[in-house]
Design brief:
five-stranded parallel β-sheet, 189 residues, Amidophosphoribosyltransferase, glycosyltransferase, alpha/beta, two-stranded antiparallel ribbon, glycosyltransferase activity, Rossmann fold
Length: 189
């Protein structure tokens, strides 16, 4: 575990996003390590048809956030979307499952406020700049009248450079939420 919920405004993930996206707090449940426990979990969730694992981990993280004073921080939990074709193939969005677990624990709504307009290549072997180029202008806010004035917790499964989350936050920010904070299941260095 990272314990970034204890320092959500002053950690290396927040620093990665400075100047890229209008976010206040950035948190990660687990530290991602290649060939480590977190990578094994993510592979089970994404490639071995284990959406319930993402939901349970979301519940655990949500309860941890609740125990540490985050009960009333957000109006909605918003997952990073998959492209519709990828979601149809996989059968679920792992980030949405993680988000639903967090939302359940915090007793708030999980809302799909974003669409992925076009499919993107995997980010896995891309440089920081290539990742940003791959996801810039890919996301579009929907249900835009519901975003204004809301406190949003944007959720994804993994964060490496932060390009995907930054692109999503920028799309949401166009519709004037009160705040945007980020939480991920696992984050790399």
């Amino acid at each position: 575990m990272t314990n970034y919920h204890l320092i959500p405004k002053e950690n290396d993930l927040k620093i990665k996003l400075l100047g890229l996206a209008p976010v206040e707090m950035v948190m990660s449940y687990l530290r991602f390590s290649k060939k480590g426990f977190s990578q094994k979990l993510l592979h089970q969730i994404k490639y071995k048809n284990k959406p319930e694992l993402a939901r349970v981990l979301g519940l655990h993280y949500g309860y941890l956030l609740k125990e540490n004073g985050f009960m009333n921080n957000w109006s909605h939990v918003v997952p990073v979307p998959l492209h519709i074709r990828k979601q149809e193939i996989r059968g679920y969005n792992q980030s949405e499952q993680f988000a639903k677990g967090i939302a359940e624990a915090l007793e708030i709504d999980c809302k799909v406020f974003l669409l992925r307009k076009r499919p993107t290549e995997t980010q896995t072997n891309k440089s920081r700049i290539e990742r940003w180029e791959n996801v810039s202008a890919v996301f579009e806010a929907c249900s835009t009248s519901e975003i204004k004035g809301q406190r949003i917790l944007l959720v994804d499964d993994v964060m490496t450079t932060g390009a995907t989350l930054a692109s999503c936050a920028i799309s949401l920010n166009d519709y004037q939420p009160e705040t945007i904070d980020l939480a991920v299941l696992a984050a790399g260095n």
